[in-house]
Amino acid sequence: MMHPGAAMPAATFFLMVLFVALFGAGARAQEPGYLEKAVCGALTERVGFFLLRAVAGRPRLDRSEAIEGLEPVSFRTKDQRLLGGYKHRAIVPAGLAPRGYVLVTQGNAMLAEHTVPVLRFFAQAGFDAFAFDFRGYGTSEGRSRMAAILSDYVEIIGHLNGKGYTKSLLYGMSLGGVIFLNAIGAGVSFDAAVIDSAPSRITRYGCPSELNPVDNVPRDCSNLMVIVGGSDRVVPLKDSRELAESVAARGGTIVRRDEFAHPFQDVSIGVALARLELVREFFEGTIGR
User: Fold this and answer.
1) Who is most buried in 123, 178, 201, 245, counting CB within 10 A?
2) Residues in a beta bridge with 145
3) Each residue of 153-186: b (16+ CB within 10 Å) or e?
4) In terms of Cα–Cα distance, which of 253, 262, 217, 263 is closest to 235?
């Protein structure tokens, strides 16, 4: 038996990681959901999401108890996966309804709870703000698979649209932007959307071309804004340029700031707040129209 302090051979470690990725990714799921089919390469999706979930970490389930206005929420998908997340209630004067909802979708190495400061920002602007863990992440059930995650957000948007809100607003960061453009391509109803630091194409990750964000840009982009950052090392300008140009050609708004890095990687709180102010101003300007 190996001593607890002994170094594990690299080959053994790699085989253990591969075994867990192939056979352990769905350990928390009760039964495989019929949506959970790999479309970006069986090995690529399993290993990729396994590693990204590890980076995202485990949730702090007590977070909602410590922040006024924040509460846990859940959503059951059509293949019976329970997704966990958070809602931050709109901060509005007594007797007034929220101005609408903002659905925030994070990057692929994050949990919903990491977006709580963003949810609070939009709550302070008068919107109910929501974020959910991707299936297989944090408090959500199921296997993390691209097609299933895309389907989940089409369902979530439809669910929120049926709750009587006057405005539906979408803010997707990184993978969240990929998700929202696919949802828009699938025909979801929304009033305004901001796509922040998303790549133009995801075929280089083994995904089919029909999932490329640039191939899901709507004909009318007047209610769409794309943010690209000159300091973004995760999705550099060369990877987002085609998407930005396509949205601009169809009447959308493009914001490029050299000081912007990838979301949640900005050099200072001031830069991060400036980013959110741009999103809020776009939402308010669009729904005002």
Assistant:
1) 178
2) none
3) bbbbbeebbeeebebbbbbbbbbbbbbbbbbbbe
4) 262
Place of tokens 């991060």: 272
The 10s digit of each residue's pLDDT in 244-253 is 999 999 999 9
User: Of the candidates 168, 88, 91, which has an alpha carbon nearest to the alpha carbon of residue 131?
Assistant: 88
Using CA atoms of 102, 103, 106, 111 in order, give the dihedral in degrees to the nearest 10: 110
Confidence of residue 33 (pLDDT cuts 50, 70, 90): confident
Closest C-alpha to 169, from 195, 194, 192: 192
Please list, in sequence order, all residues whose beta carbon lies within 8 angstroms of the beta carbon of residue 3, skipping any fewer than 6 positions away: none
Q: CA-to-CA distance for 102 and 89, rounded, in angstroms?
A: 11
Of 220, 228, 172, nearest to 195 by C-alpha is 172
Closest by alpha carbon to 21, among 39, 46, 44, 45?
46
Position with higher pLDDT, 146 vs 63? 146
Distance CA 49, CA 45 (A): 6
- What pLDDT, on a 0 to 100 scale, did the predictor assign at position 246? 98
Strand partners, 104: 171
Q: Global pTM?
A: 0.88
Contacts (Cβ under 8 Å, ≥6 apart) of 280:
121, 122, 125
Look at residue 2 and tell me whether its pLDDT is greater than 60: no
| Tokens standing for residue 76 | 């059951």
Single-letter amino acid, residue 203: T
